[in-house]
Design the sequence.
């Protein structure tokens, strides 16, 4: 049989073989006849090779892509978005590939960026509309390290949904970047929020693949620390509302982004003093964490993925321990349920350097570990303080000292000292150490570690002061010898004085521009320190080598350290004013010591402190804490709180009572005893004590309007001032 050559057909040209025909009139060449191909001359459109079957028919009917040679294609020319994201082999079947079909994923083919070569038509693209739900939660494969949402490998985000994250912010990228930078500069250094990887988060944001709900929560938290004239401040409430609505609509979604969003929303609600929402969100986050098995470490994940899960779990533990205040009924994430190692050092997490540390919450030895970061030590001291509060609060409600109570106090004190001795030298609090950490995200964790350590001693022994809200009952104090009481008060006062030295060091570096501290927890500890110093007796001060004339300076330091917080957290101004009121009262008391009448009346008023403690557990909710605010709201004592608070968290100008002038705004012991009740200024309900922060252990003692003065038992006289910082 003779063969005739003519212009090659498309199939032979594509396969780079010689095209032959038995007869010139034949429409099909020999090669196409042998391989059962559709023989078409060059210039005419052929179906896509992906759609051709072994007989030249469309593979959409057979469901199997073939090569031009008729063999089964092992590698598809296009991959769906899910397989492409996870770098998995995609079969290329349409409308769904085999991998997505077997795993129940939503398969989508996005338009290719490549230009189609020749006249071959592009592969068919399946256009599928996407729903408003932003998270698909059935994926169990771990995401790659380059993906921000790889924190646990339990979620995947549709490409189209992630791309809409920028447009859902209703503002330009510059404004969003400003909020993100503010978050990582001010919020991320706070120990409870050190779980986002900044580099990966910014990478996902630039590609438009950041989860929208998490992006809104981050921007809302970051905007809290921006200047008042920043336009992002106007969008804070909207971002919080949208993120919270998305979380609650998908409350059964156990993806890591949902838990991270809840933790950040807790900060936003805390600043606005919405503590009921905080407690509800904490309970939801804890259940989601248990369902996601965040409290158990996964060895099959990459280092960043595993470390992110660990940090989220410990962040939840820290948040709840601060809010629970040592009360078991408010604890859903005890330390015994966290079966994961402590977080690695910050540099290892930031640079993706694997950490070989397997240190758990309770140390197995007293020596320091080089693989432990400052965050791990902070978690340990927070756990130790939580156990101290549980012991002290339980004892304060008793009518007699439990057996072995002194031994337990001594054991706690020894454990605190052992913890401090185990700290590496680089984690000691000194001017040089703070300067070296000034540009590190761990600077606030280093400061808070030593402040919480000092506060733990104060929490351990302040119950032996008779005039504090946290005092033990009178029957307990009667069974304590005077020498033991004086020793306990001495230890508590000694650490309160050392706490002031920490504040002075912060103020020194802050004034030089080397250190900026914006952690709201300092406000709580400064208030407690000032309250204890007001109780410092001359004989105890002499034993400490401290002159009572230095106490006004100590109180000034406690108030000055809060100044940096005022532009960001307006409610701190009330705490600062309370400390200033203590200072004025202390100076007034020192000036009137020679007046026996006034002094005896003051002592009589102060003796009421211990009689409040054994009534019920609700009385143990300390001032400026969330739990006592919730209790009072439930009893209707602060029904006007929401109406008396401005949008920015500030309290409005307070009105004077009839017969009072601007000079009479401070209700003190001296100027209220001789006035009739109608002339005494009493701050309205909802003003006193509602400016609470996220710590929970501080003084609250509510006085009804029937009283002729508004005074706390530990020299805490509240005055009414405008709340503008």
Sequence:
């Amino acid at each position: 049989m003779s063969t005739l050559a003519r212009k090659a057909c498309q199939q032979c040209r594509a396969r780079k073989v010689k095209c032959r025909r038995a007869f010139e009139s034949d429409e099909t060449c020999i090669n196409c006849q042998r391989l059962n191909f559709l023989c078409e001359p060059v210039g005419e459109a052929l179906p896509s090779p992906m759609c051709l079957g072994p007989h030249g028919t469309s593979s959409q009917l057979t469901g199997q892509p073939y090569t031009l040679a008729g063999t089964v294609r092992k590698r598809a020319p296009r991959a769906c978005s899910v397989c492409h994201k996870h770098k998995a082999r995609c079969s290329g079947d349409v409308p769904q590939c085999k991998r997505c079909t077997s795993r129940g994923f939503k398969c989508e083919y996005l338009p290719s960026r490549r230009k189609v070569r020749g006249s071959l038509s592009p592969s068919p693209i399946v256009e599928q509309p996407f729903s408003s739900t932003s998270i698909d939660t059935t994926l169990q494969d771990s995401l790659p390290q380059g993906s921000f949402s790889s924190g646990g490998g339990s979620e995947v985000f549709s490409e189209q949904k992630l791309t809409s994250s920028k447009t859902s912010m209703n503002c330009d990228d510059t404004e969003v970047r400003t909020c993100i930078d503010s978050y990582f500069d001010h919020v991320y250094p706070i120990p409870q929020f050190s779980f986002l990887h900044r580099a990966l988060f910014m990478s996902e944001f630039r590609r438009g693949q950041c989860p929208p709900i998490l992006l809104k929560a981050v921007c809302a938290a970051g905007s809290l620390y921006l200047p008042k004239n920043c336009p992002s401040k106007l969008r804070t409430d909207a971002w919080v509302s949208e993120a919270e609505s998305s979380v609650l609509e998908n409350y059964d979604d156990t993806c890591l982004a949902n838990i991270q969003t809840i933790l950040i929303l807790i900060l936003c609600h805390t600043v606005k003093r919405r503590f009921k929402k905080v407690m509800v969100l904490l309970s939801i986050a804890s259940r989601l964490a248990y369902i996601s098995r965040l409290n158990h470490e996964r060895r099959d994940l990459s280092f960043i993925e595993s470390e992110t899960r660990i940090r989220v779990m410990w962040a939840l533990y820290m948040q709840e321990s601060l809010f629970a205040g040592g009360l078991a009924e408010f604890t859903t994430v005890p330390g015994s349920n966290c079966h994961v190692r402590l977080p690695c050092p910050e540099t290892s997490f930031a640079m993706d350097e694997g950490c070989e540390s397997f240190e758990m919450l309770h140390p197995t030895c007293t020596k320091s570990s080089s693989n432990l970061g400052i965050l791990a030590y902070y978690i340990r001291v927070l756990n130790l303080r939580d156990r101290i509060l549980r012991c002290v609060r339980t004892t304060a409600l008793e009518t007699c000292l439990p057996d072995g109570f002194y031994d337990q106090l001594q054991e706690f004190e020894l454990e605190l000292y052992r913890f401090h001795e185990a700290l590496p030298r680089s984690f000691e609090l000194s001017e040089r150490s703070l300067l070296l950490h000034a540009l590190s995200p761990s600077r606030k964790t280093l400061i808070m570690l030593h402040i919480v350590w000092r506060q733990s001693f104060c929490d351990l022994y302040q119950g032996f002061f008779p005039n504090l809200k946290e005092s033990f009952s009178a029957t307990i104090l009667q069974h304590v010898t005077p020498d033991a009481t004086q020793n306990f008060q001495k230890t508590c006062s000694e650490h309160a004085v050392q706490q002031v030295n920490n504040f002075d060091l912060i103020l020194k570096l802050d004034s030089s521009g080397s250190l900026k501290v914006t952690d709201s927890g300092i406000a709580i500890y400064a208030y407690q320190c000032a309250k204890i110093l007001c109780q410092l007796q001359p004989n105890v001060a002499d034993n400490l080598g401290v002159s009572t004339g230095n106490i006004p300076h100590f109180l000034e330091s406690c108030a000055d350290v809060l100044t940096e917080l005022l532009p960001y957290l307006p409610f701190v101004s009330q705490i600062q004013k309370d400390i200033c009121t203590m200072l004025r009262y202390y100076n007034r008391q020192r000036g009137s010591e020679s007046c026996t009448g006034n002094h005896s009346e003051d002592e009589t008023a102060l003796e009421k402190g211990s009689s409040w403690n054994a009534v019920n557990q609700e009385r143990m909710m300390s001032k400026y804490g969330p739990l006592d605010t919730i209790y009072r709201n439930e009893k209707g004592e602060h029904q006007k709180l929401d109406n008396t608070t401005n949008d920015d968290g500030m309290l409005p100008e307070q009105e004077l009572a009839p017969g009072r002038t601007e000079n009479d705004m401070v209700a003190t012991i001296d100027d209220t005893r001789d006035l009739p009740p109608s002339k005494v200024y009493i701050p309205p309900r909802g003003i006193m004590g509602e400016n609470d922060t996220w710590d929970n252990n501080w003084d609250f003692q509510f006085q009804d309007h029937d009283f002729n003065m508004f005074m706390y038992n530990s020299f805490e006289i509240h005055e009414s001032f405008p709340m503008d910082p």
In short: The chain has 27 helices and four strands. Residues 192 and 319 are 6 Å apart (CA to CA). The mean pLDDT is 72.
